[in-house]
Amino acid sequence: MTLASPPRPERRQTLVLDVAGMTCGSCAARVQRTLSRQQGVAEVCVNFATGRATIALVPDVVDGATLVAAVEGIGYRARPATIGGAAPGTDAVHAPEAAGWRRRALVAWPLSAAVLVLSLGWPHANGARLAAAVLTVPVQFWAGWPFLRGAIQRARVRTATMDTLIAVGTLSAFGFSMVELTRGAAHAHVADAAAFGDHLHFDMVCLIVSFLVLGRWLEARARGRAGQALEGLLRLRPRHARLVADPAAAGPGVLVPVEALGVDDVFLVGPGEQVATDGLVLAGSSAVDQSMLTGEPVPAEKSPGDEVVGATMNTYGRLTVRATAVGSETALAQMVALVEEAQGRKAPIQRLADRIASVFVPVVAALALLTVGGWWVAGHPGRGVLAGVAVLIVACPCALGLATPIAIMVGTGRGASLGVLIRGGEILERSRQVDTVVFDKTGTLTTGRMAVAEVRTVPGVSEETLLGMAGAAETHSEHPVGRAIASRARLALGEVAPATDFEAVPGAGVVATVQGRRVWAGGRRVMDQAGLIVADDLAAAGCELATAGRTLVWVGWEGWARGLLGVSDSVVADAAAAVSNLKGMGIDVVMLTGDHAASAASIAFNAGIDRVVADVLPTGKVAEVRRLQEAGHTVAMVGDGINDAPALAQADLGVAVGTGTHVAMESADIVLVSSELAGVPRALALAQATYRTIRQNLGWAFGYNLTAIPLAGLGLLNPAAAGAAMGLSSVAVVANSLRLRRFGRSQPPAACRPGVRSRHRSVVLAWLAPAVAVATLVVAAQFLAPRPVTPFSYSLPLGSGRSVAAFVDPGRSGSNEIHLSFIDATGREMPVQGAAVLATSQGGRTQQLNVRRFGPGHFVADATLPGGVWQFRIRSTAAGSPALTAAFVRRIGP
Prior knowledge:
The chain is built from 28 helices and 35 strands.
């Protein structure tokens, strides 16, 4: 019998495409749907905000050319992205787009203003109407060309996007107005024009396009600002390095492009110069400003043996550095890659918005058709066209598509500038639920550098003698404790005696011959094994130091223990402040360590931690994290070493400090570039603030569409107002996200308090913006909505071929507007010095109406009258002619 081999894990390759031509969330959903249908594609994430598609594929099944062709087959442009380069989301990429929209806005708005004046001032004058039509053409077909072009491109592949809705809406209003314009003289079709509103709607077309163009310009500018943090990281990259062939030789070195550097090349860094790439200091000393990468304000002292990071700034000294990483392996390149990866991934909360965006356009088109049909059946086809256009224009999937990715882009970018790297949107969701943070001790809560803290000796032996003997014996030791003792001895004495016959006692200590004496150094077990006598006073001192949490190293020779050294690891400077901030956020703090209980208790006390789990192996750390999770806690694990990687992976949220190993960082969800523990509460606060912003954005996007579309369908929102609302809706989402750029500026980031206790407040804030917007739209609708009543019009002879066209526009509660246009014998509007309107009821009551001039021969009278039959007498004075009079009768009210 042949046993089947176990299935091999599927090989996957990640491909990133720059996708051009996406104008809304429905575009991103369509691209994602198309790519996911390709054979060999395992996973796809299309980000509308960055314009990128991240694809996990099986290399032997599908290649990049096939996927590019699939995207271009549905009307978009695609090409492989340059990872680590200027991503489409940075200001450099959006600047040309913003400039193009700005040019169109600068043309559209003056023409729109002129069309608006002509339409309101001379609504029935043939010359004004023709001039308005001519001025509308460049607005519709040049300023609005990007919308028309997008609609044409999508129509060629039988799809529809937001551009389709805009194009259909504006062209409908423009075409309807052109038909009305060609039907004859103004006074011959006043009734038909009134059925459509009270004049032709070229002004409406211009305002819609102008508002949309302005909105796209503001959006492009804002999206560029959203990517400035990542662009700032990219600008940090050094361009040149001073390469030297001989590290010992003097001279300025040879200036070469930084791309020419290789691993192990030696280069110089002068005062005020950037470190060309990651490396190890060979000679020199200086302070290096690392704030651009880590957010640490104080420069770090560097001397031979210390590591330096590329793109940091040397302040005063001259350093000779050997390159240890170049190109994509540098810390800066890895930071950029992590931020780009995070910006390309979606949060699970975005799934509902994606599903809605995928069907948004056809649903809105159907609603517009139903709106037109409903008004048509009700006997108001002109009103139906307006309402249908408003539905097409006001709907905005852009806000839905931008809600999550733009917040992630700004949040992760701001985090990178603070030294906090968040891997993706799903991390943001998990971070808001964290209620317990578990710290590793060594290298995380402590510096990881052992130092001699206490020296105790027996009478007759000086501290210098004890250090000299112990330091000589430990010279060849590789244990951190032994290296700390040898370092302290050299610091105190300068030189130590040579040691021979060195021998390491596994798990206990060392033994060596120093100055002819056999010297033992190690734990108490070493003293017992060597048969050395420990005096009672020295044993009591050992108990005292052990209680204080010191690691004890006994030193003895010639039959007696001569003294002991208390070695300890110091707590990092900001550990207590970080723990205090976490507690202030309502988060429990636990310390896990493999060290003995006494030492762990001492470190925990200094850091302000109440719960300590000591003497645990790496597997024990995993078990402790799992135990906390089973108890109902959401756990964040903070660590730095290889032995922390399993616990980081087990925790709900893994946080790796920047001094940690590559394995730890790969296992973590959040990476702190700096070793400062203030980054832990800062990272959680930023993640929670970003997630709150996402919920606010989605609340706005859903609330806006659910409110604005019904208002438009009911005729309570005219197309011009709809265009303004649509143009500003996505701008509002981006502007709300840009608030994250100020995170940590008004107060120290670690002091932010967006913890568990503020969740109810964040829910209220998430829905406050759309509620305010709804109220604003309702109020605006009262002023901008066309009046839902049937108007009347009259043509009254004045003699000698002259006439007055009277158009009565009934309003609400007996309020009326009477438009008067005086027409000469040639059918043109003639100038009139003034006009008066007197209203007389059947009972003899009279009322003089207030009359406003809107043109040379165009006046509007305001009439607020009780119900009944009224006669309206018109009296005018033409230039050089006697007064002209006319009258008509109509009923006010039902």
